[in-house]
Amino acid sequence: xxxxxxxxxxxxxxxxxxxxxxxxxxxxxxxxxxxxxxxxxxxxxxxxxxxxxxxxxxxxxxxxxxxxxxxxxxxxxxxxxxxxxxxxxxxxxxxxxxxxxxxxxxxxxxxxxxxxxxxxxxxxxxxxxxxxxxxxxxxxxxxxxxxxxxxxxxxxxxxxxxxxxxxxxxxxxxxxxxxxxxxxxxxxxxxxxxxxxxxxxxxxxxxxxxxxxxxxxxxxxxxxxxxxxxxxxxxxxxxxxxxxxxxxxxxxxxxxxxxxxxxxxxxxxxxxxxxxxxxxxxxxxxxxxxxxxxxxxxxxxxxxxxxxxxxxxxxxxxxxxxxxxxxxxxxxxxxxxxxxxxxxxxxxxxxxxxxxxxxxxxxxxxxxxxxxxxxxxxxxxxxxxxxxxxxxxxxxxxxxxxxxxxxxxxxx
Length: 412
Fold this sequence. Notes:
Number of strands: 12
Helix content: 40-55%
Order of helices and strands: HHEEHEEHEEHEEHEHEEHEHHHHHHH
Distance between the termini: 31 Å
Strand content: 15-25%
Number of helices: 15
Shape: elongated
Structural class: alpha+beta
Largest sheet: 6 strands, mixed, barrel
Strand order of the largest sheet: 3-4-9-6-8-7
Radius of gyration: 31 Å
């Protein structure tokens, strides 16, 4: 063990000086607070991004294949559900599920109240995992029968606006020529707390919408594709687009592939701001922790001026004495980082288990602060903080080169 580290360890852990000990403790507390806040910030941002992405893709899937259109509309042109590229897509590594859908705009009328909604027609291949998870009343639709299900699933937002409940019959009007309507029974009510979608989407058997559109059973609005890793979205989209384009060229169809980012860019622009915000927070906290430790180290150098003089008189070089104070700062920082990690992870765990801190779902899309910790985020954060602050600590430690043994020993 080098003498610099041995002396530094004793100063940090065994020093009873009325000046040095409080200085080291204050610097350490600054690191603890900064580290715990950084961990909380990363966990909250990661949690928010994860929850919002899961809710968006639960409604609209990760990607969709539809007929070519220059605008975004829920009134779509039909495409054949028996596409030659489907078998090839199902063999792509990363694709979890493919399902057909039909969308159509409608108006709910109850008494003298009206509400415009978007009906999402679903079939036997519909993945119920997301919707079942968010059902607060009723049950899912039974679409396995020969006859179309006469049920509809609406959101709690719509149910509250129109004073609706499970079992109640509603009339859906379709503005077309000639105008049409359907009388359906509310089978379930869901609540995702994502107002952007809850206020407009309802789920019905797609056979109703096919009939209203004068489509046959082979015609749908498109295909929804779910993948197992959101980080692969762009790569898989390009791969799928190439396959669909080749198939479309052979059949003469005009199809397009859109990712969830293409369909709702404004939501993902908002999510991308999270990364900027957390980066700024981490940067500011690292600066605060660095200044805290550097200031403490400068004061400690002044307090240990006589010690520095004695060490130099005994033959210690400027470099070794500088290393001594860098070690003091590094040991204090490491202790602060460890305690900060324990505190930060502890707070994240408490929030994860108890949902203690609540939010307004109309503003934040969730009713509590979501948190998610990634082991790699923690490792990168800890290594980054340690390396940056250690480099910063070299600057104040260089002041020892200006201290001469004769003046230092006489210093009082």
